[in-house]
Amino acid sequence: MTNQVKILAFAGSTSINSVNKKLVNIAIQGAISKGAQVTFLDLRDLPMPFYDDHLEPSQGLDNVLEFRALMRAHNGLLIASPEYNGSVTAVLKNAIDWASRVELPNQPKAEGCFVNKVASIMSAAHGGFGGERGLVHLRSILVNVGVIVLPEQRLISRAHEAFDEQGNLKNERHQAETIEQGARLVDIAGKLYH
Fold this sequence. Notes:
Elements: E1 6-11, H1 19-33, E2 37-41, H2 62-73, E3 76-80, H3 90-99, H4 111-114, E4 118-124, H5 132-144, E5 148-156, H6 159-162, H7 172-193
Parallel strand pairs: 1-2, 1-3, 3-4, 4-5
């Protein structure tokens, strides 16, 4: 595929059995069906220190630099975010803060991580609202750093009961709509940037 759309997909969770990792993996199916090259990132595998703008790459920021490189290399972001206390998780906010740092010595500018990127967001939560309050904050953060966030979002409530043993959603309509959300991200990213 010429000018193949590249999507970076991840969940704002480091939990091993994260329902949001399951959710984003369903959306990945839709992105792949549209011919996108998808990179799944588990933030558990890329631990970053708490954001401190006085830390320098020589002090162990290899994972931060790798995350920033991944962000720059992709056209679109597929993010599934848990809701913690009505907002985004600390690990997700920390990653975004590092990627948006204005300046790191001898590194490309932070704008390349977010500006001209399009994102699709979703959430699976154990409560009845499906993580909606957290996505309000995530949308605001992403828009503030220059990301175009698609208006559609997926909310899966009572997530502890929503998935089968294979990681699919038991509700066939929710499964199909989540796959479609991944596909739509690729369609929009392709129209905007190719």
